[in-house]
Amino acid sequence: MKSVTVQLSDFEYSQLGLSKSTIPFSELIEIIGKKITKQTLEKSVQLANQYGLSKMTMEEIDKEVRTVRNANNNT
Fold first, then answer.
1. How far apart are CA 66 and CA 75, in angstroms?
2. DSSP string of 27-52?
3. 35 near 15, Cβ under 8 Å?
4. 56-75: per-residue pLDDT in tens?
5. CA triple 17-22-23, angle to 5 deg
């Protein structure tokens, strides 16, 4: 088995919620993936609020999706 050393600042270590200094690489990838997913979701919510999309009803969202799909299918 090979080892890889990754250096993190105390802040980064804390931000990732790490509690031990040695973890499998697959676990590190999973932790980082979850962190990126959470950041992406938070940014999506922020943009939805900024552009008023968060106030759309499910019917309005469905209509927009159908409109885009129909436009893509007709091109």
1. 14
2. HHHHHHHHHHHHHHHHHHHHHHHHTT
3. yes
4. 999 999 999 999 999 999 87
5. 70
